[in-house]
Write a structure and sequence with these properties.
The complex is a heterodimer of chains A (about 375) and B (about 290). Chain A is an alpha+beta fold and about 375 residues long. Chain A folds into two domains: about 230 residues, P-loop containing nucleotide triphosphate hydrolases (Rossmann fold); about 120 residues, Beta Barrel (OB fold (Dihydrolipoamide Acetyltransferase, E2P)). Helix content of chain A is about 25%, strand content about 35%. A six-stranded mixed beta sheet of chain A has the order 6-7-8-3-9-10, sandwiched between helices. Chain A has a five-stranded antiparallel beta sheet with strand order 13-12-11-14-20. In chain A, strands 15-19-16-17-18 form a five-stranded antiparallel beta sheet, with no helix packed on it. In chain A, helix 3 packs across helix 4. The two termini of chain A are about 45 Å apart. With about 290 residues, chain B is mainly α. In chain B, helix 2 crosses helix 12, helix 9 packs antiparallel against helix 12 and helix 9 packs across helix 13. Chain B has 13 helices and two strands, in the order H-E-E-H-H-H-H-H-H-H-H-H-H-H-H. Chain B has a two-stranded antiparallel ribbon. Classes of the chains: A alpha+beta (about 375), B mainly alpha (about 290). The interface between A and B is medium-sized, with 26 and 17 residues. Chain B: InterPro entries: MetI-like, MetI-like_sf.
Chain lengths: ~375, ~290
């Protein structure tokens, strides 16, 4: 079979895969390529079909149409225990009846390795994930983060072409989750195995991934780097789902101009294609300039005079809720990290400046 | 003032019926039976302490053989019941969903709405020489003449398994229900095959339930009287029958008490051995029933 070098660099190729259930389509004609050694995330709300897609890649569900190719091999009619793929389950699914070492060695034993080899490899893998000397422990003696690492070690010890992760951080508390995010990224970088990670948490996807696919209703809305998703969302869904945004319903009156439902006239980013009718407008809170002096926002395309309603203090993520004085349009504005304007009081008048390129409208 | 006192009183009151039940209906009769078994009738209305009743058991091969036979057959029943119940329990706990599952549970429980006596008489109607099954076999030409299916050891086994299967099924279903499906998927994903997953994941998880079911079935079978007598006839050679004979026919309560104590000792010993051999703890098993 002729191989182009480009083909060799693809570890997972999903080709036109669909899965229908009575009454709805979970996965609809999806195609995707994951480059070797990359961290690929599938991000979407619950019920978008991402778990179905992952289970089809793992082999627990057979697709109705299409093919899944892993490491150059078609996975049609290949059982999960014969695929070069391992999965880290949502609730980890560690075997409570076995020790930590036996959990990690389970897959190796199934491959018929000798006892000494299994022990050596499992212990090396446990050391790799930062758990040296835990092989003899029981699973219930481990903390949440340690269990997480055992689950990953149990899969990675088999040296799979592809590691699938099904929201494995969901059960952890916030602090540990933040920590594990970085650790997982680091581990993937060191080991170089291709990771396919599914999550509904946009921060997990943005922090860890090389590439993210945003999934909605069984289809991909956009596939790109975290930066592309954040700065150049391709659809209203992506703009609303990734990061925080002020969403306004606008009626476009011409290229780069529109009127919000409240009557507020706005100058917008130049539209692709059809630039008329009702659209959804997104403005990120951190792109809005805020000042107590009108002169500071004079050079902006849109200038608004607003009343402060509520201050949401959250350290570096502090925002302020304001309302346009004339049209009553509510807007969320990020406060500067320097602590400037941290003393804003409800009822104060502030001036906002929004550049046209930061106000993006999408047809839904 | 002790703040805990009212709560302790409440606990005592709640437990009182169970404690009274245990003390009056189980503990007290056993003490009485124990005392009876260690005495001997030396004259009319005169009794003396003695070990004669136990010595008779060891001297008389019939008693001894019946005892061993009862124990061995009960073990066979327990093993067969486990093998039969496991796939059924698996289907109910892991495969069936919703209405089908409810129907399957009902199908298991339904026979227990009739009394054990009625169910055994049903087997009698089916299996006796002029009964349904032998006649059917004869009509189909499978046997030259209607065969008597009653009074065989196999018939007793079938009856005993039939009457104790539920007590194996319930703890097994409970144990298998608590097994997280993702554990099976994870084992499969890591390269395990079916046999391997059964041996390494399913059986270890269900072990307390298996032990509980086996203990119940074994005890119930060992102490069963009705099934061996009806399906095996007068010569079914079941140990409970010997106890009955001593108490009721021979009116030798001392001998009957000794037999009853021996049976109690046997079942305790075998249950203890079984738990030891499989590395299970009694408390774990009882929590599963």
């Amino acid at each position: 079979m002729p191989h182009t070098p480009q083909h060799d660099a693809i570890d997972l190729s999903v080709r036109g895969v669909s899965k229908h259930y009575t009454g709805f389509t979970a996965v609809d004609q999806l195609s995707l390529d994951v480059a070797k050694g990359s961290f690929f995330s599938i991000l979407g709300p619950s019920g978008c079909g991402k778990t179905t897609l992952l289970r089809m890649i793992a082999g627990f569900i057979a697709p109705d149409d299409g093919d899944i190719v892993i490491g150059g091999q078609s996975m049609r009619d290949v059982a999960p225990n014969r695929r070069p793929v391992n999965m880290v389950f949502q609730h980890l699914a560690l075997f409570p009846m076995m020790s930590v070492g036996d959990n990690v060695g389970y897959g190796l034993a199934r491959r018929g390795l000798g006892k000494a080899d299994i022990q050596r490899k499992s212990e090396a893998m446990l050391e790799r994930v930062g758990l040296p000397g835990t092989a003899g422990k029981r699973i219930d003696q481990l903390s949440g983060g340690q269990k997480q690492r055992v689950a990953i070690a149990r899969s990675l010890v088999l040296e799979p072409t592809l590691l699938l992760l099904d929201e494995p951080l969901g059960a952890l508390d916030l602090k540990l989750r933040e920590h594990m995010k970085l650790e997982l990224k680091q581990l993937q970088h060191e080991i170089g195995t291709t990771f396919v990670y599914i999550t509904h948490d946009q921060s997990e996807a943005l922090v860890m991934s090389d590439q993210v696919a945003v999934m909605n209703k069984g289809r991909f809305e956009q596939v790109g780097t975290p930066q592309q998703l954040y700065y150049q969302p391709a659809s209203a869904f992506v703009a609303g789902f990734v990061g925080n945004s002020n969403r306004l319903e606008v009626s476009l009156s011409g290229a780069g101009e529109g009127v919000a439902a409240s009557g507020l006239p706005l100058r917008l980013a130049a539209q692709h294609g059809d630039a008329s009718g009702q659209q959804a407008l997104f403005i990120r809170p951190e792109t809005i300039a805020l000042s107590r002096r009108e002169a500071d926002v004079a050079e902006y395309d849109n200038r608004l005079s607003c009343r402060v309603e509520t201050l949401f203090f959250d350290g570096a993520n502090s925002t302020v809720q304001v309302r346009d004085a004339r049209y009553g349009t509510p807007l969320q504005v990020a406060l500067p990290h320097t602590g400037q304007h941290a003393d804003l009081q409800p009822g104060e008048t502030v001036y906002l400046g929004i550049r046209a390129e930061h106000a993006k409208a999408y047809r839904e | 003032m002790n703040v805990l006192a009212p709560r302790r009183l409440g606990l005592f009151l709640l437990l009182a019926p169970a404690v009274l039940w245990l003390a009056l209906l189980i503990l007290l009769p056993h003490v009485e039976v124990g005392l009876l078994s260690f005495r001997e009738r030396v004259g009319p209305g005169e009794f003396a302490p003695s070990l004669k009743q136990y010595l008779t058991f060891f001297d008389e091969p019939l008693y001894w053989h019946t005892f061993v036979r009862t124990a061995l057959m009960s073990l066979v029943v327990t093993v067969l019941a486990l093998l039969l119940a496991f796939p059924v329990a698996w289907s109910i706990a892991k495969v069936a969903r919703g209405r089908v599952r409810a129907l399957m549970m009902a199908a298991i429980l339904l026979p227990f709405w009739a009394s054990e006596l009625v169910r055994m008489l049903g087997w009698l109607i089916l299996l006796r020489g002029s009964g349904v099954v032998p006649q059917l076999l004869f009509q189909l030409g499978l046997t030259a003449e209607p065969v008597e299916l009653l009074y065989h050891d196999a018939t007793i086994l079938v009856g005993l398994i039939y009457s104790s299967l539920l007590f194996m099924l319930v703890p097994l279903i409970n144990a298998l229900e608590t097994l997280d499906d993702s554990l099976i998927e994870a084992a499969y994903d890591l390269g395990g095959n079916r046999l391997d997953i059964l041996r390494r994941i399913v059986v270890p998880h269900a072990a307390p339930g298996i032990a509980a079911g086996c203990i119940m079935v074994f005890m119930l079978t060992l102490g069963n009287y009705l099934t061996p007598v009806i399906l095996g006839g007068k010569n079914s050679m079941w140990f409970t029958e010997q106890i009955y004979t001593q108490f009721i026919t021979r009116f030798n309560w001392e001998q009957g008490s000794a037999f009853a104590f021996l049976l109690l000792g046997l079942s305790s010993l075998l249950v203890w051995l079984g738990l030891k051999l499989t590395g299970q703890r009694f408390a774990d098993s009882m929590r599963r029933t």
